[in-house]
Amino acid sequence: MPWWVFRRRRSVPASRATGQVVAEGAALPPLQGERRFLQEQPYMLPKDLGEVNRLDFQHYVLRALLRANYLAPIGQPRRILDVGCGTGQWAFELCQQFPQAEVVGVDLEQLKATTPPSNYRFVQGDVLRGLPFADASFDFVHQRLLTSALPLAAWPEVVRELARLTAPGGWVELVEPGLGLRVTPAGPANEKLLSMGAQLAAQRGLDTEGAVARSLERYLQEARLVNVYMRTVEAPVGEWGGRIGSLLALDLREIWKAISTPLAAYFNLSQQEVYNLIDSANQEWNSLRASCSFLIGYGQKPFTPR
């Protein structure tokens, strides 16, 4: 096993661990339903086979939308880290693109039991409690779509943790939806769904108003990264938007369906009522020609400390 795995930075007091930014010892409200949720974590979405399939599908949609797996000018990295790696599909493709590199995926648990590329390694870890890697271990650190997993208050410290892991001259890249699950324009069904989802997310300390996306640049700068660059990518949602629009609409429907049981339980609705609301929202995406956005931000670790 490489020397840079399982060596945690000693200079940071435990009291500064990101997991303690959220109220210490506060019990999270349960997410009810037949699907498997991580009740001890802020993460809102399930961890099961259905979510594995959706995450892989979502990866292909984002790759098609961005026409790449990353935007940072990373050159030829030797060590790559994917934080919140999910199924590992992004990391697997980076293994193929950079066969000389060692690619590490870190997440709360390993989701997909497949034979990974020979230069891939999975490490179990929780970024909210600090990751088990030495300082400056990686040339490229990537984190994507964790607004639904990381409490809003934890984000500044999380990005500082990513910067800690990055070698001088290396890059950190973040990708998040511009407004969470919000599409614009939004009709009454969408507005109701968004209001319900926001109330559920707020109970877990998650961002409900797009604050994370608006702050990505500041987070990177406060982590003392340089050459910070931001890009916004707009995308259609619905069949009116062609292939990308249809794929994004399907992904959004599956996200809402994934949390339909917790929504129904929390708001005292039947699951069919929630499904009907999702179907109405889908119709609005087409009739109103809705769109959404993704923000990509990246910054470089300076060669000399700032």
Structure description:
This protein is of the alpha/beta class and 306 residues long. It has a domain at 51-183 and 209-240 and 291-301: Vaccinia Virus protein VP39 (Rossmann fold, 3-Layer(aba) Sandwich). 35% of the residues lie in helices and 18% in strands. The chain has helices spanning 49-66, 89-97, 155-165, 188-202, 211-222, 242-258, 260-266, 271-287; strands at 79-83, 102-107, 120-124, 138-144, 166-177, 226-236, 291-300. Strand 1 (79-83), helix 2 and strand 2 form a beta-alpha-beta unit. Helix 1 runs antiparallel to helix 6 (242-258), helix 3 crosses helix 5 (211-222) and helix 4 (188-202) packs across helix 8.
Task: Tell me the layout of helices and strands.
Blueprint: H1 49-66, E1 79-83, H2 89-97, E2 102-107, E3 120-124, E4 138-144, H3 155-165, E5 166-177, H4 188-202, H5 211-222, E6 226-236, H6 242-258, H7 260-266, H8 271-287, E7 291-300
Parallel strand pairs: 1-2, 1-4, 2-3, 4-5
Antiparallel strand pairs: 5-7, 6-7
**The CATH class of the domain at 51-183 and 209-240 and 291-301:** Alpha Beta
How far from one another are the termini? 32 Å
Structure classification: alpha/beta
Strand order of the largest sheet: 3-2-1-4-5-7-6
Q: Got a strand count? A: 7
The overall pLDDT average reads 88
Largest beta sheet, briefly? Answer: 7 strands, mixed
The Rg value, from CA coordinates, equals 19 Å
Q: Based on Cα principal axes, name the global outline.
A: globular
The SSE order reads HEHEEEHEHHEHHHE
Per CATH, what is the topology of the domain at 51-183 and 209-240 and 291-301?
Answer: Rossmann fold
- The helical percent reads 25-40%
Q: Counting H and I runs of at least 4 residues, what is the number of helices?
A: 8
CATH 2nd-level architecture of the domain at 51-183 and 209-240 and 291-301: 3-Layer(aba) Sandwich
